[in-house]
Sequence to fold (366 residues):
Amino acid sequence: MADRLPTIWKIDPHTQAKHIILKRYLDAWLPIMTRWHGRVLYIDGFAGPGKYQEGEDGSPIIALKSALHHKASLKAELVFLFVEAVSERYLHLDGLVKEMPLPRNFTAKTIHGKFDETVTGLLNYVDEQKVRLAPAFVFIDPFGFSHTPFTLIQRFMTNPRCEVLITFMYEAINRFIDHPELPETYDALFGTNKWREVVSETNPAERRRRIHDIYKNQLEAPAGIKYIRSFEMIDSGNHTEYFLFFGTNSLTGLQKMKAAMWDVDKGGRFQFSDATANPNQPLLFEAEPNYALLKKELLGNFMGKEVSVEEIEGFVLASTPFRETHFKRQILKPMEEARPPQLKVILAKPGRKRGNFPEGTRVKFL
Ligand SMILES: C[S@@+](CC[C@H](N)C(=O)[O-])C[C@H]1O[C@@H](n2cnc3c(N)ncnc32)[C@H](O)[C@@H]1O
Fold:
């Protein structure tokens, strides 16, 4: 797991996909968070050097630029903390950040240190002072898995307005899972010893699903995060390199992250593959969401029931992988127009057009 890369390295397509998700999300998150809070925190725990070989921006610069160039004027105090352990990368990043002219309400601090030690210090300070941590977006993007203890994520998430985006290094985690010297590291990573049950699993797909689900369940239960989404990054050899896990307690946060992830995978499988991504040969047809699957989920939940469109929207958003924009025109409309109809409008504002489902409309799934 040693990192043998130079100070700055060549970017992979899946890193670019991760950066698109990060940027799309921050573009949506920043104006919302800064509207309601006087101070907002952005922590990049494994910040990197700030640039890639061909000049592409690294995650700290993407975050700063998202705030700097935002079309909404961001009035709150915005504090950026970038933590990087390797001296040359820290110095490179620090140079880039210092060159960027920032407005008075922005503070960007580049810290030469290790993520776990640095943020433990920060959280201890917050506890000692008996103050509340400002709402924070915490990006945890390591190369490996030895320095991201679950307890730290849990500690962040005791603050209900914190959100996390975590690179869960599946390929390395799976490869070393039976290493005799690493059980304690794995216990710390997962925050449980349930991973031990997977060591004997021989079916690769099943192993992947189980490891993914143990981590997801940990984020949900002990860490108490209300909404979790994951996105799979596949390398050029067609293997899962990592899962990007997002956790939030805010339905709006979930909505915005789903929008960002759907932007990168228009088919809604929540994955990106270097093996099939070829910038010189874009696919001829854009992938479509699997509306038949969403219809099945809606029927499974609402068949025979009367519900408001708001309830349907809440279900789609919180309990399915689909977006809130995916169900009216694509599913309710054809169901109302089917012969015989599969859906009946029970209550609607006067003048509602057939096939439209504005707020306040109630329907029955027949
Ligand atoms: C995957 S790279 C980060 C890439 C960056 N987030 C981006 O998207 O542009 C991981 C970085 O973490 C740094 N690193 C390694 N161990 C660390 C630790 N314990 N704490 C903080 N940074 C660490 C590495 O030097 C490397 O630059």
